[in-house]
C-alpha cells in the first residue's frame, strides 16, 4: 500500500509512541518518530514530513516552544497531541499555529481521522490553479500565506491569516462566531467568543480600520462578521 502521508511523531513516552507508530502505519501512513524536542525539530527540518504530531510534555523543551520554533521556519501542518486539556491552553496552541489539537487519552483511529482532515485542508489550499483570494484591494495567497493590502504587505500571525482567509472565502456573507471557532480555531463548542473578538480587533488594526469605522470587516451585532470590499453595495 502506498503511504497516505509521511508523518513525524514527536512523543517521549515509549508506551504511547510505539503503539501509535504501529497503528498509523497499519492505516497506510509512513511514520518516523522522535523522543525529544531537539531531535524532532531536526527531523522536521531535514526530512520535511507532510505532517507533525507534537506532544507538549517533552523532556528537553516544552512543546509550546517547539511549535513556535517550527512555525518560524515552516508551514508544515501540526497536530498537537497532549494531556493538557485546559481550554485556554488549547486556544493558545491554535493561535500559535497548531492546525488541530487532540487531548489524551485518544485512540489511533481518532488521531488518524484528525491527521487526514488536516491533510485534506492543506491539499485543498494547494490543489487549485490559483488559490489567491481577492477582495477589493486585499490579495490573500494561501500558498505563501502572504497578504497584501493595496499592494503593501500586511504582517499577520498564523491565526490572523487563517481568520482573514476564511472570511475572504465568503465575501459579502455573514460568518458566525460559532463557525469561526469551528473552522478556524477547530474548537467545536462555544465559550471562546472573546477569542474571536480579540483577533478581529487585531486584524482590523493591521488593515488600518476600526469597528467604529470599518472598511473590510463589518460586525453584524448578535450574528457575526462580514468581509467585503469598501463601497460594495448592500
UniProtKB/TrEMBL annotation:
One of its GO terms (cellular component) is cytosol. InterPro entries: CheY-like_superfamily, OmpR/PhoB-type_DNA-bd, Sig_transdc_resp-reg_receiver, WalR-like, WH-like_DNA-bd_sf. Keywords: DNA-binding, Phosphoprotein, Transcription, Transcription regulation, Two-component regulatory system. The keyword DNA-binding applies. Residues 130-229 bind DNA. This is DNA-binding response regulator, OmpR family, contains REC and winged-helix (WHTH) domain. The keyword Phosphoprotein applies. Residues 130-229 form the OmpR/PhoB-type domain. GO terms for molecular function: phosphorelay response regulator activity; transcription cis-regulatory region binding. Residues 6-119 form the Response regulatory domain. The modification 4-aspartylphosphate is found at residue 55. SUPFAM superfamilies: CheY-like (SSF52172). One of its GO terms (biological process) is regulation of DNA-templated transcription.
Amino acid at each position: 500500500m502506498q503511504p497516505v502521508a509521511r508523518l513525524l511523531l514527536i512523543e517521549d513516552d515509549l508506551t504511547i509512541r510505539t503503539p501509535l507508530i504501529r497503528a498509523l502505519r497499519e492505516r497506510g501512513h509512513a511514520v518516523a518518530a522522535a523522543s525529544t524536542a531537539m531531535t524532532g525539530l531536526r527531523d522536521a527540518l531535514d526530512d520535511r514530513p507532510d505532517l507533525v504530531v507534537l506532544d507538549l510534555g517533552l523532556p528537553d523543551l516544552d512543546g509550546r516552544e517547539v511549535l513556535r520554533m517550527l512555525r518560524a521556519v515552516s508551514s508544515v501542518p501540526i497536530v498537537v497531541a497532549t494531556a493538557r486539556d485546559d481550554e485556554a491552553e488549547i486556544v493558545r496552541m491554535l493561535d500559535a499555529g497548531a492546525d488541530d489539537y487532540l487531548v489524551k487519552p485518544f485512540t489511533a483511529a481518532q488521531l488518524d481521522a484528525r491527521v487526514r482532515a488536516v491533510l485534506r485542508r492543506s491539499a485543498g489550499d494547494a490543489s487549485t490553479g490559483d488559490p489567491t483570494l481577492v477582495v477589493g484591494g486585499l490579495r490573500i495567497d494561501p500558498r505563501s500565506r502572504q497578504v497584501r493590502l493595496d499592494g503593501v504587505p500586511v504582517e499577520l500571525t498564523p491565526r490572523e491569516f487563517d481568520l482573514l482567509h476564511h472570511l475572504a472565502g465568503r465575501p459579502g456573507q455573514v460568518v458566525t462566531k460559532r463557525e469561526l471557532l469551528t473552522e478556524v480555531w477547530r474548537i467545536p463548542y462555544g465559550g471562546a467568543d472573546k477569542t474571536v473578538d480579540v483577533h478581529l480587533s487585531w486584524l482590523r488594526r493591521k488593515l488600518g480600520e476600526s469597528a467604529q469605522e470599518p472598511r473590510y470587516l463589518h460586525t453584524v451585532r448578535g450574528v457575526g462578521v462580514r468581509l467585503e470590499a469598501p463601497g460594495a453595495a448592500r
